[in-house]
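Weekly structure sync, notes
Attendees: PL (lead), two postdocs, one rotation student
Agenda item 3: pending single-chain targets
PL asked that the sequence for the first pending target be pasted directly into the notes so everyone works from the same version. It is reproduced below exactly as submitted, 249 residues in total.
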Amino acid sequence: MPSMTERVYPDEMDTSREIQRIIKDVFLRRYGLARDWFKEHFGKRRLKILDIACGSGFGSAILSELGETMGVDIDSESIEYAKTHYQNGGVKFLSGNADDPAFLDSLGRFDAIMSSGTIEHLSDPISFLSWIKKALNPGGICVLAFPSTFTMDWAAPHHKRDIKPNQAIEMFSTCGFKIERRFIEGHHLRLKDLRQETHENPELPVPPLKQWIAYYLGHPHHFAVRMYQITLGKGVLFQDQEYLLAPDG
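Predicted structure, written out during the meeting:
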């Protein structure tokens, strides 16, 4: 079984564990929503689709219901898993880096682009979004999904930034996109479930204590929020946002 750290393997997950159940549901819903938005926008037309940062490939398989789909991810282990479990005549997989402009330009053009859990990892999300606009065929659209609450206390160095909804809106406008749809959902993760997952899944990217201390010294408000969530709130907030974007003009 491949490691489940930043990537999701739905067929391998133990949904008797609350954290894995929530993560599986969230990621399957992300791709189901993207598929439905694409279908509503294009109707019965067969599409050429790119799933950039496709992870284990399960989402690319969902999108391939609508047409020829290419899944791309930087992690070679995930791509090999995707090829073994999901590749067929309607979906193919390729290893590549979304932070590499030359690689992105080599991919060609698409009717629809999906990118889930990507821009929080990139060195230059503005450049990436500008490329998406350029890579879309006339009338094309894209779907972006990413966290909408702060994550840098536990996700660093995997995440390079947190993106608030107002920051996302400004970024989309800067890159020449308009928002057609938006979906935000949140879940509260109980501390005992987080502890169980950390204990039973040692490959999770848990930062060392000194990294936690350094982060919270620089972000005391985030420390206060986490303490409230753990002690008086319903649990640590896990929240995602998903946007359907179209070029503005």
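Discussion points:
- Strands lie at 47-52, 67-73, 91-95, 110-116, 136-147, 177-189, 236-247.
- The chain has one domain: 10-247.
Action: rotation student to compare against the earlier draft before next sync.
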